[in-house]
Design brief:
Blueprint (H helix, E strand, L loop, with lengths): L5 E5 L7 H14 L2 E8 L13 H22 L8 E7 L2 H12 L3 E5 L12 H9 L4 E4 L9 E5 L13 H17 L2 E8 L2 H9 L5 H30 L1 H7 L2 E6 L2 H11 L4 E5 L13 H7 L5 E5 L13
Length: 323
């Protein structure tokens, strides 16, 4: 499935970015998309005896950029026989310049290697988390060293089964279509997970303490069936979205996990040994400055595999071209 037209790959030469670049090139080929590869270097700030913007700092900045451009050209040169690749070095705060590049040139996917820090338990560094919160297009963060092809891809969907058509919202559809596309491209298994918490149990225990345990259990089971039915309806719609042939090839595996999403989603990713998790990071649309929710951030801080994070249509990044 051709999903992307204008791919951006962010690299730092010598920092384990080869896998991300190779994936970006292959994806651009398969989608007949344009590919831009960038590196971002921090702006040189004035030191003791070195005035801001003076000739010494300007020369130093130019030398750094020139060296990074040479490294970047060497990195992308082997791929120029396959596709047309644009490469350039940007100056500034990495996450800001990456988002501004997206805003200027309309990229519809960003691929970047995770900034794994040895002294942290978390996979994603500061720039990664800023991008996961604020990047206006899908953000694919790969591991510094990972398999050339994924074996298991997990799509995490969320919905309220009592809202009409809630499971078929634009965000769930985007998550499932992207996960399906990746699974088809890599000949990988597709796993779809939905985590739910029994709301009726809590309400009954608070407001109707005279009910028996059997009655409470019956209500929880009824709620579980509602979630299961909605999950099956949603994946049934996936057949319509990607086509019967693709769906029958994938035959997605479904998981209904009872418990908090912030606990169950990363736990399920570990149980199936997922190579990639596709998930949303914002639940509401059209709210400028509404960043990633606490649940999504907690999940991401527990994941130790590649992530493809998406925003719902209408998300507005708080980053602007000015500033």
């Amino acid at each position: 499935m051709k999903r992307f037209n204008n791919i951006l790959c962010v690299v730092t030469p010598g920092a384990g970015c080869k896998t991300a670049l190779e994936r970006a090139v292959t994806l651009a080929e398969n989608n007949q998309a344009s590919l831009t590869v960038i590196d971002v270097t921090e702006r040189v700030t004035a030191g003791i005896g070195m005035p801001e913007g003076g000739p010494i700092s300007a020369d130093l900045q130019a030398a750094i950029v020139s060296a990074r451009e040479q490294e970047l050209d060497s990195l992308v040169e082997p791929y120029r026989q396959r596709i047309n690749v644009q490469a350039r070095v940007l100056i500034g705060t990495p996450f800001l310049e990456i988002i501004r590049e997206i805003l200027r040139n309309g990229h519809d996917l960003v691929i970047k290697t995770a900034e794994r820090w040895d002294w942290q338990d978390r996979l994603f560094g500061s720039n990664d988390m800023h991008l996961l919160r604020k990047c206006p297009c899908p953000m694919w963060i790969t591991l510094p060293e990972e398999k050339p092809n994924y074996r298991r891809i997990m799509a995490a969907v969320d919905f309220d089964p009592w809202l009409e058509g809630a499971g078929e919202n634009d965000l769930n559809r985007l998550i499932l279509e992207l996960a399906s596309s990746m699974a088809l491209s890599d000949f990988a298994e597709l796993h779809v997970v939905h985590a739910w918490e029994p709301m009726t149990e809590t309400m009954i225990r608070v407001f109707s303490s005279d009910l028996s345990e059997e009655q409470i259990a019956a209500n929880v089971n009824r709620e579980r069936r509602d979630h299961q039915a909605q999950l099956e309806r949603l994946t049934g719609r996936l057949r319509d979205w990607i086509g019967t042939e693709a769906y029958d090839y994938l035959l997605p595996r479904l998981y209904l996990c009872q418990g908090s999403a912030r606990k169950e989603i990363p736990a399920q990713a570990r149980r199936i040994d997922a190579d990639l998790v596709v998930m949303g990071t914002v639940a509401r649309t059209g709210l400028a400055g509404f960043f990633m929710g606490n649940t999504a951030e907690t999940i991401l801080n527990q994941i130790d595999c590649a992530v493809l994070a998406v925003k719902p249509p209408g998300f507005v990044t708080p980053v602007t071209l000015e500033g």
